[in-house]
Every structure is written in structure tokens, then in C-alpha cells.
């Protein structure tokens, strides 16, 4: 579903992605992990052309992401992207935040978009918050609205960049549970995360990055019990023992 071939990218003289190759098959959930500055955010942002690339090729669902003739608005409407910060419209209710893009971009009627919005929000445990404004919601609730907003566009792929890092500990679980249920529905997903327990339990593979390179791609059990590189062993030693 996602194919990355020989992708490199620099910011000025600083190479942040070096010859990246990656395949994410349909319906699989891949965790992207690694130390700060490894290039995780840069890589995931290239997948929907939020970042350009200097070399190589990326296709998502058959579309060449950085192709000259690719319609970026169309591409991005089919790739959900959830960030650390939720960026909901503060003057719109949860239901309105979710139904806005289907109405504006997909031309759905208000009634149709609002009904789907309510369904999605309910499925994410927010059935009693449809008419709440973002300012009246907890961080975990706002992040679930942001997930519903992406899902409302019927994406073929969902990307997450540290979706729980801005949340208080007690809210992390509700958001991870929502993502876990999404994985169970067969959505294709790439998730940058520092939640190692989640990566191990939910993801089909772990992609470990360091210094702009993919160091290894492995099934979680293998990665966490017998990492194939010193770099990964060192990283796991730090994150699992603090
Ligand atoms: N717009 C930019 N201009 C210049 N350098 C950048 C830019 N964005 C990222 N970088 C650099 O690219 C490198 C990789 O950054 P990136 O944000 O992808 O890392 P990361 O793995 O997501 O780290 P973290 O875990 O801290 O989020 C870093 O050295 C960063 O300083
Ligand atoms: Mg990052």
C-alpha cells in the first residue's frame, strides 16, 4: 500500500533521510521508532508530500506522491494524518469539526455529513460530546475528535506522528485503544510512537530509524527481545529502563 524506494532528503547540508526503502502492505500497522532527530517525522511527512524529497520515489495506493501531475489535495484527502497537536477548529463543535471536510471537499450534504460524524464520534467513545467545543474537551477527547475527522474522509491510509505525546498519562490509553481498534478494522497505518508497549502489542512490524537511515524492520517480538543491531539495543536499553 505504501512503497518507499531509495528516498533521500537533506535540509541544506544536513542529510535527514538516507536511501530509505520501506514497504507497508495493505491492512498492516507499522510502528516507526528511534531516537530524537532520527528523521521519523520527516519520513512520515514525506508520505503525503508535506515534505518534498531529493531522490527516490514514494507511492501510496498506487499514486506517485511526489509526481509532477499528482493532485495533492486529492492525495491528502485519502491519507489521514494525525499530529501530536490536534488543531481542531475552536469555534466548531466536535460534530462540526468532523463533518466540515466531507461537506467542503466531498460535497456531502450537511445531514449526511453530520450523521456520519456522529457515528464516527460515537465509535470513538464520544457519543455524548457531539455538541461540545474543543475547549470543553480533554486532550484525549480532542485527539479522538482529530482521529474521527481524518476517518470521515474515508482514507485508505492513516499516518500518526506521536499522537499521544502531548497527552496526560491517563488519556494516552484511550487514544491508543482507539488506534488499536482501527488496526483491527484492517486500516493500513504508520505510527511514529514512543509507546513501546503499544508498538509491541498492536503493530505488525517495527521500523527502527537512526541518523536518517532505517536500521532494521522486524516483527515486534523479535525486535524487542532480540534486536538485530547495536544501535537498536542501545536505544531499547535507554527507553525500556527509564
Ligand atoms: N524544516 C527543517 N529544516 C531544517 N532541518 C530540519 C527541518 N525539519 C527537521 N530538520 C532536522 O532533521 C532531522 C530529523 O528531524 P525529525 O523531526 O524528522 O526527527 P524525529 O525523528 O521526528 O525526532 P523527534 O523524535 O525528536 O520528533 C533533525 O536533525 C532536525 O533538526
Ligand atoms: Mg518527530
**CATH topology (level 3) name of the largest domain:** Rossmann fold
Strand order of the largest sheet: 6-7-8-3-9-10
**Largest sheet report:** 6 strands, mixed
Low-confidence stretches: none
Counting structural domains, the number is 2
Broad CATH class of the largest domain: Alpha Beta
Count of helical segments?
9
The residue-averaged pLDDT reads 95
Radius of gyration from the alpha-carbon trace, in angstroms: 18 Å
Task: Bin the helical content.
Answer: 25-40%
Distance between the amino and carboxyl termini? 36 Å
**Structural class from helices and strands?**
alpha/beta
Shape: globular
The name of the CATH architecture of the largest domain is 3-Layer(aba) Sandwich
What compounds sit in this structure?
adenosine-5'-triphosphate, magnesium ion
Order of helices and strands: EEEHEEHEHHHEHEHEEHH
Map the helices and strands:
Blueprint: E1 2-11, E2 14-24, E3 29-33, H1 40-46, E4 55-60, E5 63-64, H2 72-77, E6 79-82, H3 94-104, H4 110-123, H5 139-151, E7 157-161, H6 169-184, E8 188-192, H7 196-202, E9 205-210, E10 213-218, H8 220-225, H9 230-240
Parallel strand pairs: 3-8, 3-9, 6-7, 7-8
Antiparallel strand pairs: 1-2, 1-4, 4-5, 9-10
Task: Describe, in plain words, how this protein is organized in 3D.
- The protein is an alpha/beta fold and 242 residues long.
- The protein folds into 2 domains: 2-78 and 157-240, 3-Layer(aba) Sandwich (Rossmann fold), CATH 3.40.50.300; 90-154, no CATH class.
- It contains 9 helices and 10 strands.
- It has helices spanning 40-46, 72-77, 94-104, 110-123, 139-151, 169-184, 196-202, 220-225, 230-240, and strands at 2-11, 14-24, 29-33, 55-60, 63-64, 79-82, 157-161, 188-192, 205-210, 213-218.
- The strands form 2 sheets. Strands 6-7-8-3-9-10 form a 6-stranded mixed sheet, sandwiched between helices. A 4-stranded antiparallel sheet has the order 2-1-4-5, with helices on one face.
- A hairpin with a 2-residue loop joins strand 9 (205-210) and strand 10.
- Helix 3 runs parallel beside helix 5 (139-151) and helix 5 runs parallel beside helix 6.
- The longest helix is centred in the last third of the chain and has 16 residues, at 169-184.
- Magnesium ion binds next to helix 1.
Amino acid at each position: 500500500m505504501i512503497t518507499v524506494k531509495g528516498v533521500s532528503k537533506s535540509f541544506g547540508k544536513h542529510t535527514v533521510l538516507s536511501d530509505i526503502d520501506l514497504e507497508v502492505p495493505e491492512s498492516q500497522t507499522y510502528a516507526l521508532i528511534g531516537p530524537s532527530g532520527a528523521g521519523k517525522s520527516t519520513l512520515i511527512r514525506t508520505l503525503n508530500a508535506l515534505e518534498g524529497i531529493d531522490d527516490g520515489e514514494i507511492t501510496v495506493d498506487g499514486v506517485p506522491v511526489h509526481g509532477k501531475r499528482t493532485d495533492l489535495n486529492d492525495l491528502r484527502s485519502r491519507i489521514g494524518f494525525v499530529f501530536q497537536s490536534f488543531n481542531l477548529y475552536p469555534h466548531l463543535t466536535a460534530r462540526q469539526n468532523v463533518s466540515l471536510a466531507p461537506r467542503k471537499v466531498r460535497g456531502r450534504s450537511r445531514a449526511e455529513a453530520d450523521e456520519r460524524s456522529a457515528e464516527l464520534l460515537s465509535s470513538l467513545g464520544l457519543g455524548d460530546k457531539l455538541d461540545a467545543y474543543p475547549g470543553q474537551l480533554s486532550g484525549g477527547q480532542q485527539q479522538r475528535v482529530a482521529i474521527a475527522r481524518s476517518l470521515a474522509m474515508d482514507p485508505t491510509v492513516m499516518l500518526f506522528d506521536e499522537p499521544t505525546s502531548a497527552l496526560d498519562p491517563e488519556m494516552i490509553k484511550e487514544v491508543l485503544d482507539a488506534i488499536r481498534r482501527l488496526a483491527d478494522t484492517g486500516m493500513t497505518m504508520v505510527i511514529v510512537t514512543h509507546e513501546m508497549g503499544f508498538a509491541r502489542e498492536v503493530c505488525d512490524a517495527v521500523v527502527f530509524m537512526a541518523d536518517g537511515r532505517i536500521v532494521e524492520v522486524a516483527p515486534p517480538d523479535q525486535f524487542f527481545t532480540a534486536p538485530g543491531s547495536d544501535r537498536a539495543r542501545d536505544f531499547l536499553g535507554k527507553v525500556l529502563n527509564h
